[in-house]
Task: inverse folding
């Protein structure tokens, strides 16, 4: 009986101790350090315009149906940060194949009007595929350069100016060699709004 009481006391002390250290002290320490070293990132990398939060550098937004804006990647979540996931279908899945075909058809119908020479072979992969989270804020530079034709014409801007803005908002590879360069769609669209207010 004494051994059982001793084991229960030891277990209770361990639960309280680990709860205090790992459930309270460690989160407070990491939160405090991140607030001091990376205040913007630790608060969600919010983007403000005229003192109002308009989005996050880390979360894509839906610009569908707005031809004056660059469009993000397809999203199975509708860009909802509350339910991030991807479609999880295999490469031989018929439903996934039909999804890609539909996205390609939509992309070509939207962009070919402004870039008549555009073919299916020219369309970058990210223009028709979803990201792992469903809220990726970036598109490839190739995708943005195709869309630049539409945005330039709809906004009445010179194509070269829009392409310069694409280059200005292209992030390089992480640490110089991880991943691919990407264009943050929200930041690019905000810079387009500065050129020609909506």
Result:
């Amino acid at each position: 009986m004494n051994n059982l009481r001793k084991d229960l006391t030891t277990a209770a002390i361990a639960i309280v101790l680990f709860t205090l250290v790992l459930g309270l002290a460690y989160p407070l320490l990491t939160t405090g350090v991140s607030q001091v070293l990376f205040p913007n990132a630790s608060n969600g990398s919010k983007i403000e315009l005229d003192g109002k939060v308009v989005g996050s550098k880390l979360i894509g937004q839906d610009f569908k149906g707005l031809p004056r804006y660059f469009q993000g990647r397809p999203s199975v979540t509708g860009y909802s940060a509350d339910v991030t996931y991807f479609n999880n279908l295999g490469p031989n899945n018929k439903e996934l194949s039909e999804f890609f075909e539909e996205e390609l058809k939509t992309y070509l119908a939207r962009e070919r009007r402004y870039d008549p020479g555009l073919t299916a072979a020219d369309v970058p992969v990210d223009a028709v595929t979803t990201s792992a989270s469903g809220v990726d804020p970036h598109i490839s530079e190739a995708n943005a350069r195709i869309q630049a034709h539409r945005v330039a014409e709809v906004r009445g801007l010179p194509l070269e100016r829009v392409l310069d803005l694409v280059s200005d908002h292209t992030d390089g590879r992480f640490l110089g060699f991880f991943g691919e360069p990407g264009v943050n769609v929200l930041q690019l669209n905000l810079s387009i709004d500065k050129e020609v207010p909506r």
In short: Helices lie at 2-37, 39-42, 94-111, 141-155, 159-168, 185-195.
